[in-house]
Each structure stands twice: as structure tokens, then as C-alpha cells.
Amino acid sequence: MLRIHDDLRRGAFTNCTKLAGALEVSRKTIVRDIAFMRDRLNLPIEFDPQLNAYRYTHPVSAFPTVQVSEGELLALLVARKALEQYRGTPFHRQLEISFDKLTGGLKDRISFSPADELQSVSFKNAGIGKADMAVFNTLSSAVLRQHEVAFNYRKPGETKTVPRRVQPYHLAHRENLWYLVAFDCERQALRTFALPRLSAPRALPETFVRPPDFSPEKFFANALGVLSGERDYRVVIRFTAAVADRVREREWHESQEWRDLPAGGLELKLRLGALPEIERWVLTWGVDAEVIQPKELRERLKATAGTLAKVYR
Question: Is pTM, for the whole model, over 0.85?
């Protein structure tokens, strides 16, 4: 039907015989689809016996493939606005094209001002990461084509870069930053690389096969944010009543469980594979959060608190 619409919109000479041959379907199928377009989609199609061809009686700008309510269209517009944080990535243009196709056929069916409606909706993420688009494009292409990649990488807190050669499995946007999940050929293990610390990537001619059992959900399952680990920590944190509601209001991790405490407090339980991220997260709550277990995490926080006391002495 989209092909039929395109021919009719361009004024091309088209009839059932020509369309059936071009689309490799029966003439009966073409007759059925044209009838559907005319009777169900209200498209102005008529058959001109003198030309022995179908035509539109007046211009049609878009094919009405989508039937949505005003609220549903507003939801699409809100989603598009939320995706502005990914502007500059190869996906952003494709999303814009897809959005225009979805909404193009609705211009004559729904009348309201998206600009006015969206003034009541906004999005703000603090600390949105920056990624070099040349780096991003090279890596995304290598992920899709399953080519090995070589690049220079700088670990956090270090000044020098180290050459790495990897098999790129997945690009993930987590905690407002892009990361590459890849199999490190030298270390023979999966590693996570932050794109802002990655430079001079080049795709190599060598290809690889991504393991069928790899999945980003499984890889990040025991990570609070990005840092996964091989341990199995059962973390218990108690929050005061001052922040209990703020903790309840968000989904922090798939494993989270909580129970209410006397006087309005809250106890949160998590299962994680590493401690550095949860340590930093607990510190953001200040004196309103206390780690009950594991003991190792309590000791880490105790040492950090002592260092902080010296810094602010």
C-alpha cells in the first residue's frame, strides 16, 4: 500500500497489472489493497478509464498508517524531547526520521500545538557525559560489523594512555555516559571502557563472533551502575526518616528489597558484585544512611569518613 501511495502521489501511471508485476503479488491482492485504501483510509483514489490507471483526485501529503489519540501523540512528542540528550549520535537522526514517519499521517486528524503542550514538560540530567562522535561512530560500526578494534585508553586517575585491542560486544549508555563492553584480547576477559577516556580508535580487518550467551542485562546484573564484579555482596543499608521517601520513590537496582523501620526509617537490601559504586552512593546520603553489612563496606566507609574529617579539619 505504501508503494501504491507513492506511485499515486507522484502521478505515475499505475494500474493493477503494473503493480502486481512490480510487487510480485496477484492482481486480486492489488484490487483488495486499493479498495482498503479508498474505503477504510479515506484516500481519494479513482480509476480513470481513459488512462487505464488509478490516480488521486487531489494531493495527499502522507499515508495515514497510524491512528492515535491526542494523548498518545503527546507521549511521542515527550519521548522525542527526552531523546535530545542523545543528539549527535548516529541514532538521533534515525529516531527523527522514524518520528516524522509516525506523525506525518496525523496532521489532518489531530489539531493541537506541540510547542505549547511541551512547555509543561522538561527533562534535566546532571552530569551528562560527552563523547567524541568520531570515536562513537567508529565503535558503533565495529560493534555492528563485529570487527576487532584497537585504541588508546586512559584509566581513571592516570595520565598516560595504554594501547588496547578488543572485540567490541556492546555500547551502553549508563549513568549519563557511554561505555563500551568488550573482550580484551590481551587480558582474555570482558572489560568496560568509558568513551571519554578512549582515543584514536581504528577498526581492524580481523572479525569475531559475539558469544551467543552474552547479554548486556546479564553483564550489568550485579552492578549498581557500571562496575560489575565477580563477588556476591549482600548489602544492607538503613536510612533515616528524613530521606526514606526519596529512597522509596526510585528503582535503584533489580535486586532491591526494603522494609519499613520504626519512626519512619527504611532498610534497603541489594545484591551486588562490587563495592566501590555503592560506597560512593551511600556517601551521597551523608549521615542519613548507615551500612549494616557487609562488614567490608562498613570499614571502607569508616576509613573514608576519617579521611574526610582530616580534609575538613
Answer: no
